[in-house]
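Researcher: Please predict.
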Amino acid sequence: MTTRFLAVVLLLAVTGCARKEPSPEYTRASERFNKLYAKELDDAYVDPAIREVEALLEKVPPDSLDAQAASQLLTRIREGRARIEKTSTDRDKALAAARTAPKFSGQSVSPPPAPPQLASRPAPAAPDAGPPSAPTAGMPMREFNRLFGDCFEAAGPVEVNGRGPRDSYSMVDSDRCRRAMPGLVTSVVLADSEAVMGIIPKSALRRSLADGGTPPAATDAGS
């Protein structure tokens, strides 16, 4: 009877020693981690509050019922932190590189070409000089009449050497016209039906006579 009792006591002692208990540190660590992760997701791995969770997990006894779970959670937290920190570092490097201006060196580097819109821009047009101040050779008769018709009147045909008779125009008796064109007071404007031929002094004229006779000797008008 005594032997049997001792055997039962020994069996209970062995069984009691082999039984593992749950860890209160793991229970608190798991609860805090779950609340923090639900609030911040992966940012929880770099939150300062995660350090307290790690400290609790490190206190879980290796022979407790939660030892393996505590080790796995601790590994998850540290790997998550390393991943988040690497991503942040890579992003900062990329932003710094984007803000840095490129540097060039070597013989092959040349200044950039001018923008097409600048290279192909036409030269500015010369400013308008305005209407002429006096009749000139080559001026169309319509322009002569429009600009100077009030200062000149027909003076009869003039024989132009080698070209036959042409029309002539002398300045009217007008102070305004004489002040505007003093060089033409003693000259005439020679023209045909289309354009002004030129300006010549009155002293160089040889007028055609009405009866076809020979006029007094004078210098022939040039063309």
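Model: The two ends are 165 Å apart (CA to CA).
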